Amino acid sequence: MKKLRFYVALFVGKLSVLVLKLFKKNATYMPGKIAIKICPDFLKYIDKPKKIIAVTGTNGKTTVCNIINDVLIDNGYNVLNNRLGSNLNSGIATALLSKATLNNKIKQDIAVFEIDERSSKIIYKNIKPDYLVCTNLFRDSIKRNAHTDYIVDIINSSLPKETTLILNADDLISCQLGKKNKKIYFGIDKLDTDVEETNNIIKDIKTCPKCDSKLKYKYARYHHIGKAYCPNCDFASPESNFLVKNIDKDRKAIIIKETRKSYRYYMIADSIFNIYNELAAISILRIIGLSATKINNSIKKTKIVETRINEEEIAGKKVITHLSKGQNPVAASRVFDYVQSKPGKKAIILIIDDCDDAKYSSENLTWLYDADFELLNKEDIKQIIIGGVRANDYYLRLLFAGVPEERLIKTVNELETTKFIDKDNIDTIFILHDIYKYDVALKLKQNLKEDKG
Ligand SMILES: [Zn+2]
């Protein structure tokens, strides 16, 4: 009976993929959702590729998955992934059933799944990854993710014991995953920009998990990221198996040290958080046996997808669109830090309202006071133009951050933000947009091209 139910679910799921295709829509989660509705154990029974790589974490998981997928495909692997789909159980089910035959056979030999942290519980019961890469764990939307301890507990309570973890050695929170699992670490060695103690608003771990003494840092990078140790017991950041020893921004290269040898790779993007993403991807690719040369040759052809970062010259100005997720204070702070580190006179357009949520949610605002808007209080950031229904809230937050009133402009109409740019006084325009506002960012670029701005 169970078997019959599964095959009905598989058939209906595959049929709905076809129907969606007919209407020129991507099957992102609906076919999987229907299949799970018909057969709740659908993920258990569906055939799976022999090797499964899972990627999770607060920030960077999509970019890491994209790099892994690009490199594997470029090297001739037949990869099954949820690249176009959701990272919840329905997205994983959709990815699997789309590739399965009607008699439940999958011919791909490797899968790369992006997995939402909170969905771990329902996914790992039936999908047991050989490798789980965790990019990092930070405070995320409070409404959905509560606190990092809550997320660590969810992942730990569901993690299969045979899964090898690939973890960020510079992130003490994700290092607490899988007490009994085999672990391999990646990290970035001390940088010139590192400090003794960071002054970011959010630090999700401050005391030793063993003895509760205040943690100290050999070097701190941002938030709780860095190389930490406890002054009163033996607790410390682990050593990295894959360690970035050198970052050469001029030559667009990074050097990664492994146990015996160091290898040089092309640097896809120059922000530290994207170097972590690239490093995480290279680590897992090396672990499954790809040579450094092969990885590097493929990485040279890889780009971070345009919906995340894009740079182009419009009417003599550099225009950079950059994803900056709303309700995710650390992701926003990292992007603000990246923007302020760039040379020249800058204008910033902020359209980071999180979808329709902005209109209806009362929780929405708290994250503004966890994000480091203070980073935008810099002499060479000449204008910050805020667009959207929550413009007043961002305006107030920026005033609290000490940004002089004369540098701030706000408008409810996102599409008119470009018209306020003081072109004679600006070298670079940054458009920082939420994931749901990418279409608006594109329209703003079009405005600039048509000189409506
Ligand atoms: Zn301690």
Outline the structure in words.
The protein is built from 14 helices and 17 strands. With 453 residues, the protein is α/β, with parallel strands linked by helices. It folds into 2 domains: 298 residues, 3-Layer(aba) Sandwich (UDP-N-acetylmuramoyl-L-alanine:D-glutamate ligase); 141 residues, Mur ligase, C-terminal domain (Protein-Tyrosine Phosphatase, Chain A, Alpha-Beta Complex), CATH 3.90.190.20. The strands form 3 sheets. A 9-stranded mixed beta sheet has the order 2-3-1-4-5-6-9-10-11, with helices on both faces. It has a 6-stranded mixed beta sheet with strand order 12-13-17-14-15-16, with helices on both faces. A two-stranded antiparallel sheet has the order 7-8. Helix 1 runs antiparallel to helix 2 and helix 2 crosses helix 5. The N and C termini lie far apart (64 Å). The mean pLDDT is 93. Bound molecules: zinc ion. The site of zinc ion (ZN) has 8 residues, from loops.
